[in-house]
Every structure is written in C-alpha cells, then in structure tokens.
Amino acid sequence: MKKYVYILSSISLVLSSCSNLEEDVVGVLEAETLSNQEKVIGQINGAQNQLQAFQNTDFMFVLQEHPSDEMAGPTRGADWDDGGAWRDLHLHTWNSSHPRVQGAWDQILGGLFFATDALSYEPTTEQFAQATFFRSFYIFMTTDLFGQVPVRQPGASFSENPEVLKRTEAIALAISELEAVINDLPLVNTPGKPNRYSAAALLAKMYLNKAVYLATDEDGTPQAGPFTFENADMQKVVQYCDIVLGGPFTLQANYFDNFNPSNTSASTEAILSSVNTNDNGGELRRMYFMTLHYNQKPSGWNGFVALTDLYNKFEATDPRLKSNLPYLNTNSGLTAGILQGPQVNEFGAPVLNRAGSQLTFSQDFSLTNSDDQKGMRVIKYLPDYSNIDRPNNDFVIFRLADVLLMKAEAMARMNQDPSALLSQLRTVRGVAYTGAGLSDILDERARELYWEGWRRQDQIRYSTFLGTWQEKSTNSDRAKIIFPIPASAVSTNPNLVQNPSY
C-alpha cells in the first residue's frame, strides 16, 4: 500500500502548478517505505511518462503550433468556440488565465519535478544521467514557452518555494548539467529511453535557440531579433548534430513510416519518442481526431486546419504534402499529408458533408464563422485502425531530419555551405534541390516538420513569429514571444513574477 500511495502522490503533482507542495504530500514522501533505488526508477519513469503530455493537443502542442503560421482552430457554428480559446492563440491575444497556458505549465513542471526528485535518492551513474536529461529537457521547454523556470535543487526541502531562474540563467543551467553527464548515457537507442544521441539532439536544440533566450531585457521582456548567433554556439550545434549523424539512424525512404502505427520499428529516424502501445499509450488519437470531419474514418472532431502559408510552401509533387498509401486507401480512402478538395471513403464513394453533398475541404476558413468543410486538414500520424482510441504509434519528439536541418542552419549562420545536407534530405524526399540559404532552411523545416510541435520556436528564431498570415492580419507585440505565468502559479510562489505586459 505504501508504494501505491507514493505513486498517486507523484501523479497528483502533475496536476498542480508544481511551484509549491502541500505538507501532506511531504509527509507521504517521508513516510513511505520504498528503497532509494525503487524511488529513482519510479521518478525516472514518471519523467519519461510525462512525455505523453506532448501528444495531448490541449497543452504544449497547441502552444507551439496554434500561434504559428501552420495551424488554426475555426469556430463552426456552435462548435469549437470554447470561449475564444483557439482564436486567442491564433491572434496572439491570450492572457494569464488561458486554459491551455495553465495546462501546459502544469504538465511541464510535473515532468521537471519527477526528474529532479529522481536525483535525490542516490541514483547510479547512468540513472543520474537519465534523470538529468529529463531535467534539462523540461527546463528547456519551460524556458522556451514561459521565459522563467522554478527550479529546485535535488534533495531541497519541499516546504520552501523553488528558486526562479530567468531565461538567460535557465538555458545555461540546462546546457551545463546535461553536458556534464552526456558521456554517461548509453549509445544503445532504446525507444523512449534517454541515450547519448537524444542528449546530443537536445543540446543541439538548446545551443541553436540560445541566442533567443539571451536576448532578454532586464525586466524579462523578450527581444524580437534579429538575434546574434555566436559562432561558438553554432559550432556546438554542429558538434552535437554530428554525434547523432554518426549514430544508427538513416533518413526514412517512406516519409510517413515515421508516423505510422508500427513506427517503433518502422522508423529509422526516431531519436526520442514517447512510446505508445495498444495496451498502454497516451492521447495520440488526438492527432487525427482533432482535424478529421465527422463523416470520415475515423470519425473526427472536425477541428483544426492547416494554413495556406504552410500549404503554399510545397511543390505539388512533394510526397510530404500528399501521399496515396495503400494502408489508408484500404481502410478509409484518406491520403496522408494535407487534405484539400473532394474527399472519398475506402470504396471510392464520396464522403458527405452536413448538407448531404460531397465533402470538399477548401483552403479558406474563418476563425469565427466556418461551415463544416472549411479549411484543409492534416493526416500526419496515420490512424491505427486496429485500435482507433488507443493507437500504437509512438509520438516522435526528436528525429534525424530535424537534426540534419539544425546542422544546416548552424552552418548557414556561420556562412558555411550546407547545400549537401539540404540536397541529401530533399533527394530522399523525392523533390528537387531548391537552395540552402537561411530562408530556404526555414521553409524546409516547415515542409519537413509541420504539425510536429516546433513551428513557433522556429519562427521566433527567424524573427517571423510576430508577423501576419492567414486569418491574422496584424503584427504582435514582442511580449507574445513568451506566454504568461499562470495566475495560480504566481499566487502560490512569491519568487515568480508575472511576465511583462501580462
């Protein structure tokens, strides 16, 4: 029973702001009888399981995609209004009470708690490195989204409020702690487990974005760029990308094998994933439910759409835009990629809209007044027709193509020629080489990584995030580069100060 109470207490922390802890939880943690090794394993597993939050389209995923030039959530009559939550994300008009902001904060800080707590119970060398990987990962994600991070030292008393680090301090801590242990991580690539390759990918990601976090006013207001990318940081990006590129990964010949129900084994690109199975998985079903029409298979929620700003970046022959896959055709009549135009079922017959005519997805939509077929939809993670509600697809966090593009960008920022890398990627994807300037690389990141949860971060780094795109006609204030700290977190931890302009 003691073990059961301990696990439930850990889970409850995910649902809190994680900036302060109740005394009764402290008592449970002090009273339980698990060995130190059991505690370490349990908390590392907790940090790993928390990665499932990234496939839940209510939290981190929507904060990274909805405010970008890739995704929107139109209101359709009485459907999808949700108090204007999706419009606020698209138009950059959110505030500190926005429910998706609160949820993302809780989920990320829950992962950070698990990772830090694991370091408190005499872990082995490898376990220490694994827990440190997760600690750095969650510090990085909190820094990126919120601009400040409440951080406890391992073993610190829960009765005291955690120290709060600014963006500049937090990214330095995340990098230094992970660099100290990277060589203690295994070179074996086990799905879902931290290894030296996933640590290298994370370090490359942090060094690539470091200039953004350093560009912060004294009062915490983020600067909008253009940013100063130091050569030393870009050399680090290349160094860590080369560790991954020297590993057991190859670009996937069939792009959508990275996202199909057997991608645990089928993908040759996955570096770090949140592992799902039909018996024990997260909410990956949301990846197709959130966008498909009610009358398609599976029957979706008729929600989120792709923007023309994304669609127009593709050549018509790019298989990442549209692929006819036998698996989808046989089960549903769907194509993989961005769906527009008339839709058919698995028998080739028209799928009907609410009016009884053929469902036809249009490129246009309105944030406030769309019918049931406005807006292009996206099928990237292929539905698992053996278990629609509990799919077997792993949710990919880091993969090889992202690493290749990070190296290309770092080289371009050092005035080196990354054309070989871009040509390699586009050749495997079956499209002609188009150039390797910085703007080409940003566009290629859109084509390659769309709806994977990186677009907001990429646009900020390229100083395009505050601009305009489909259904967003006005520029945003630079304060919107980071989200507000949830009001509940500020009220419980006096070390937290609300971000400027919120």
TrEMBL record:
Residues 279-502 form the RagB/SusD domain. The keyword Membrane applies. It comes from the Bacteria. One of its GO terms (cellular component) is cell outer membrane. PROSITE patterns: PROKAR_LIPOPROTEIN. Gene3D superfamilies: 1.25.40.390. Coiled coil: none annotated. Keywords: Cell outer membrane, Membrane, Signal. The keyword Membrane applies. It holds the Pfam family SusD_RagB. It is found in: Cell outer membrane. Belongs to the SusD family. This is RagB/SusD family nutrient uptake outer membrane protein. It comes from Confluentibacter flavum. The lineage of its organism: Bacteria, Pseudomonadati, Bacteroidota, Flavobacteriia, Flavobacteriales.
